[in-house]
Amino acid sequence: MRETATARRARARKILQALERAYPDAKIALDFGTPLQLLVATILSAQCTDERVNMVTPALFKTYPSAEALARAKPDKLEAAIRSTGFYRAKTRSLLGMAKALVERHGGEVPCTREALTELPGVGLKTANVVLGNAFGEDALAVDTHVFRVAQRLGLARSDDPDEIHDQLLEVIPRGQRTRATHLLITHGRRTCVARKPACPVCPVRALCPWPDKTRR
Ligand code: SF4
User: Which CATH architecture has domain 35-135?
Assistant: First the structure.
């Protein structure tokens, strides 16, 4: 029988409660001190582990401490500094475009609205929501690869498009809990509901998960 929207919302609430009990230490894994640093780190984290990004950013933030400094960076120097995060040419273009737009449109400051953030080069909905939720304290759901996978296995959303997954999750995750839900779903995806062989037998939300291909002991 098809689950009603009300039943799915109730199940989502129970899932979040169980994940909170299982992962009370869940938090963003990227190191940052300012909104600009988080924006840069999030752009670098595409197709790269947060651990790798955290190895690169201390020197990067020291060399380019402001949007103005980043906007003036020599592309080849910037490429060399971020090379180990992969896709370094495209990321360099994004960082330079983003920094120049910050200087030209926002006085070198990172804007704190979703609309202004997503108008920056290289900044999509996920990156904007990471910054809003973690640097500005907003209630924002960021759909990364883990949230995308876990939400579908848990039957909370279904689409090939991460932005649609985002919109569907907003229907079931209560206001005020969306940044926290992001941390919990990402942590669950990293530690238990991993891509290749999820640890279903020890999963804290197994009883609430309809995924038909659960792994066995
Ligand atoms: S039961 Fe398995 S598939 Fe479902 S959420 Fe848990 S680990 Fe993921």
Answer: Orthogonal Bundle (1.10)
Predicted local confidence at residue 1, as pLDDT: 75
CA of 188 to the centre of ligand 1 (A): 9
- Type of residue numbered 72: R
Which residue from 155, 147, 209, 203 is spatially nearest to 180, judged by alpha carbons? 147
Q: Of residues 27, 62, 126, 161, which has the active-site annotation? A: 126
CATH class of domain segment(s) 5-27+143-208 = mainly alpha
- pLDDT at residue number 29: 97
For ligand 1, atom 2, the nearest C-alpha belongs to 200
- Looking at residue 208, its pLDDT comes to 98
Identify whether 197 is a catalytic site residue: no
Atom of ligand 1 nearest to the CA of 206: 1
What residues does each domain of the chain span? 5-27+143-208, 35-135
pLDDT in tens, 139-150: 999 999 999 999
Q: How far apart are the first and last CA of the chain?
A: 28
pTM of the model: 0.95
Atom of ligand 1 nearest to the CA of 215: 2
**What percentage of residues in the chain have a pLDDT greater than 70?**
100
Please tell me the number of Cα atoms within 13 Å of 109 on its side-chain side.
7
Q: Is 126 an annotated catalytic residue?
A: yes
